[in-house]
Amino acid sequence: MNRDAGTKYLSNGATSLGWGPQGPGLGYPAGAAILISILIVIFAVWKLTGMTFVIRDIVSFRGEALFWSAILVSDTLGTSMGDFLSDGSGLGYAGGAALVTGVLPALVALMKVPAVPNVLLFWIAFVLPRPLGATAGDFLTKPIAKGGLDLGTPGSSAVLLTVVIGFMGYAHLQERRAAP
What we know:
By secondary structure, the protein is an all-alpha fold. Helix content is about 65%, strand content about 0%. It has helices at about 30-50, 60-90, 90-110, 120-125, 130-140, 150-180.
């Protein structure tokens, strides 16, 4: 719903995206407003039902339907935010990834603020990995001329695998140090 076949979204003289409907081209702000509005409606309905927001305590079909509806919309919102940060904000791929990475520690700090509901922090933290993945993935794979590193799928996969193995190794060392 954000993009259209306008020339600013196409490259190398293409005249269409080449697949499916091109979309109404509402733009990132309008698309985000629609998705955020839908998410607010889902949470309002959820609240009005009196059902818990504690995920491990959701046991009914209605609770599951509300939860998965919120998941679907928040995933879409997160991906759209990543596209906006990469393509529409002027930050570029690396800048968008850095911005989202910088927000994550702020969310952790807000966990200590009693006035900020943990449910709100959970859903914000649930949305944020999507724009981080989109911007970081674009940064690794897009051509250098467009602000990426041009590593392609194999190169970016190798980088991500190295990062994951590094974090696993660090966690393993921390666990061994903490053992009695």
